[in-house]
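Reviewer 2 asked us to include a model.

Predict the structure of this chain.
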Amino acid sequence: MEDIARRVLSMVGPGVEAEVFVGHTALALTRFANSFIHQNVADATTSVRLRLHADGRTASGSTTVTTDEGLAGLVRRTREAARLLPPDPAWPGLAPPAPLAGEGNWDEATAQASPDARADRVHAFVDAAGGLETAGYCRTMYAAGAFANSAGQSVTGRTAEVAMDAIARIEGADGLGRLASGRLSEVDGAVLGARAAAKARASADAVELPPGRYEVVLEAPAVADLLQNLALYGFNGKAYNERRSFAEPGAEQFDRAITLVDDTLGAAGLGLPFDAEGTPKRRVAFVSSGVTESLAHDRRTAAEAGAETTGHALPGGNTFGAFPASMRLEPGPASASPTELGVVVDPAAAALVAGVERGLLVTDLWYTRVLDPKSLVVTGLTRNGVWLIENGEITTPVRNFRFTQSYPQALAPGAVLGVGSAVTTVPDGWGAAWRTAPAVRLASWNFTGGASG
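Predicted model (structure tokens):
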């Protein structure tokens, strides 16, 4: 891949600023439904992306044809496109030469996982569900990348990831098992299957509660949705520059229990150790003890804001902006004595549930849509298990709700009553981003009606 990047740069010729990213992605997926594997697919693709700035104009192009003829065609088309585009006075220039801060996470067993290895985890999930109907997937992926530009920056890296996302079902009630990791050995299908089945059985005969504001304990899959939307709409440098973000650097916008970081190179981090512009990744704190500190920037949004890039450039960033793909909510302190509340409650959330006089335990959020980006008011649904908490104990399964809630308001100063002491990494639906989160206890969540309303 390094050779391909150098070949493309040599074809561009002198007098042009150019950058090339060559990526190879191998994705393998084992999908199951009705407790049987029905699909096993694998796909490997090498792509080449070229961006150049010539005569004051910027253009991008890509190809999956890596022959000399294919690469020459990419260069020709991209140069022709640049001539047709308007001038780009905001061009921020190329990333200067800089060493990587670390290699990132790589696990050979995960990268080379066989269909049998994924099937073993599916089999364990199904067996642990104890006869309940199951469905979901186990996915492994590895990616390798090489970047080079005409300013002299040249870096390579690789990453591997496994994700399992599945449910167990009984008479309209679902239970969830979901986990992402950089190591195949850390994904135990039996543990996930037993948890999903327990939640499904405990969700049977759910009752309907009136809409309103409830104290809630959100488990990690639900918290991951908060982080996803905060990353996309709040800490996105392009959204901030366009005044579409709630973020106010330097302001105490969150409860002091909230610290949000992005750390691709950390123990739980996933992804390549550099961004789409060749900038090395590093740990970035977006919120520290409630105070908003940073925004995610690529070179263009950073130049517009008078800041420095944070290494969050993405392909297509001119449209979507830069946002953190590996955001993590830091866990709270461990409880003095472990709390056991039965199989329904994830052990990481048990201590939080024990402190609730009356509220709701929510496993997951889905179909979330932003109604107002500036205040980040989001509407969506609960799923995969909701229960009433009374005097610190789970008492009654509850039917799913629709909610309409400002995510920053839910995490505002004084609104966070507790943060769990253990984190879980959750994949997004496309395998392009990961959120690592503990459970959280929040003073108020606005449920506006039943899920069908």
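The mean pLDDT is 93. The chain is about 25% helix and 35% strand. We have added this to the supplementary material.
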